[in-house]
Predict the structure of Energy transducer TonB.
Amino acid sequence: MMKARHYYLSAIAALGALGIASPGQAADAAFEAKVVKLVTAFYSYPRSAELRQEEGRARVRIVIAGSGKPVSIELVESTGSQILDREAVRIPTKVGTYPAPPGGSAYTIIVPIRWKIS
């Protein structure tokens, strides 16, 4: 009998503490929440990493143009697993086009992605 496994994707822990100081910060927090939600929707655990019981946390920098098109996606913190690192960069590319950033100019966000088998 195979035991149940649960997979987790962690995203931005706190986009803005309890009090947000300005409407600009509120717009940034709302935009970041949308980006995280989109990335989370495309989350996957590579089968080969799962079979090897590989876990880890990656951080991915996504630069989004004013139009919502991703300009660059780059791994800024490795999981220690080549398989999970490749997937960390692949997940944000699956989104395609993001919402336009607040203010209509390029926006950089770093999204943590965690793979954990429990």
